[in-house]
Structure formats: C-alpha cells, structure tokens
Amino acid sequence: MVIQGAILAAGRGDRLRAAAGGIPKPLVEVGGVPMIVRQCRAMLDAGVARVTAIVNSETAEHAERMKIEMPRELTVIVRDTTSSMETMLAFADHLEPGWFLAATVDAIAPAGEVARFAAGAQKMIDSSVGKSIAGVLGITRWRGDEKPMFAELTKEGLISRLGGGQTDYATAGFYFLSTRIFELAPRARSAGLDALRKFLALAIESGFQLGGIEMNGVIDVDEGADLSAARAAVRDPRRGSHRA
After folding, report:
1. Which end of the chain is more exposed for a tag (fewer CB within 10 A), N or C?
2. CA-to-CA distance for 219 and 172, rounded, in angstroms?
3. For residue 222, what are the domain limits?
4. Geometric angle at alpha carbon 154, from 153 and 157, rounded to 5°
5. Is 148 part of any domain?
6. Count of structural domains within the chain
C-alpha cells in the first residue's frame, strides 16, 4: 500500500502565542525541532514517501525569515484556510487517489507511536474484506482534557459515534484515511460545517466506516502547559500523557 502524508498546519494557534514568543505554532520547537519538521519525520518513519503540509501565509513568512530547513521529502503549500475542515479538504488538490496518513501539526507522539498506528491501520484495512472502511482514527483514553472529541467504539474496533456525550476515548489528532473521504466536501460545505471534527462526525453519519486504534502518550499542544508537557515528555518519554 502506497501511503501519502498530510500535515494540517494552517491554524493560527492563538492560545500558544504567549508561551511561544509569538512564533506560529508549526515552527515552535519541541525537543529542539520545529513541530512541522518533527511531524514530517514521524510520518517518514511510518513509511510515508512524501509529505504535504498546508500552512498559512504568516507561518510561511516566519519560516523564510527564520531560515527553517524543511525535510526534502516535505512539500509546503501556503493557503489561508478558514477552518481545520477546509485545511483537510484542501489536500484533495494535492493528493493522488488512495490512502494518506494525516495529522495535526500539534499532536506530539512518542518515538515509534505514529509508525505503530500506521501499521495497525493498514492491518485493520486489509482485514476488512467486504467492508467499506474509509479510514482509521488514532484515539486516546480521555484524561479530563478540555474540548475533546469523544469517540464511541464497537467491539470490532469501529467508531460508532464521534462527538456528543462523554466516552472513554477521544480523538488523538492522527488519521489514516482514504481520499474517498473528500467526496463529502459538497455536503459538508452545504451544511456550513467549520471544523475537522464536525466533518469526521458527518462521515460517520453518512455511512463511512471508520476504525479506531488507541495511541499512547500523545500530547495535543494547544497552550503553554501543553508545550511544557511535550518538551518534558521528549526529554523523559515516561512523562508522556494522553491527550485528546
């Protein structure tokens, strides 16, 4: 299976600004490496040959000014999207039909965890003979984090519901998806959806089968405390925590 990589990095990251000294979130360093570069390397380690990232114009300008060296396997597309959903849908213009590993730029996973997720997703897809599975989401045990997107799973590991009331699991920011998911773009826009989480919930409601694989130690870097936790976890992997 040929896997493409996609990094969602077009958000402003306003809650992290003060702790990051005003630097756009994708360029904030964790373990001495900008998050966009770190995410790209994790995808390459997972078997992805080429990675595409979508960033906003401010991030692109800062990257040029700061002389950030991007991996040669990474193609950066500059696009000022209006929401995380529109960032995801923008990849339809840059990906070949097939499967892709996507991630938000601020989902920091321990070494090897992204590769484990990607391998597990492929195994789940290969075993789903006769099923119309359209992708697999990384999920984590909910630990009381703010604004999670809860996920409810069946005994077979398929996601029966996204969003709504509290469950044991929340999404982790990693997605292994078929480009068939982009077929929902007209319906999502017609419904006025404005977030990736709402788009994924629509996919479930529309009959797209999505599986779930638990990921360990993922930290979603939204604010200063998260950044400190991610940096501490990189120094000492035992300190990684589950984040939505």
Report:
1. N
2. 8
3. 3-239
4. 75
5. yes
6. 1
Residues with Cβ within 8 Å of 59's Cβ and at least 6 positions away in sequence, in order, are 9, 10, 24, 25, 26, 27
Would 25 be classed as within a structural domain?
yes
What is the CATH classification number for the domain harbouring 41?
3.90.550.10
The 3 state secondary structure assigned to 110-136 is: CCCHHHHHHHHHHHHHHCCCCCCEEEE
Is 244 inside any structural domain?
Answer: no
Residue 150 lies in a domain: yes
Q: Evaluate if pTM is beyond 0.90.
A: yes
For each of the chain's 244 residues, which pLDDT tens digit applies? 789 999 999 998 999 988 889 999 999 999 999 999 999 999 999 999 999 999 999 999 999 999 999 999 999 999 999 999 999 999 999 999 999 999 999 999 999 999 999 999 999 998 865 467 899 999 998 876 777 889 999 988 999 999 888 888 999 999 999 999 999 999 999 999 999 999 999 999 999 999 999 999 999 999 999 999 999 998 866 554 443 3
Cβ-Cβ contacts under 8 Å for 206 (sequence gap 6 or more): 184, 187
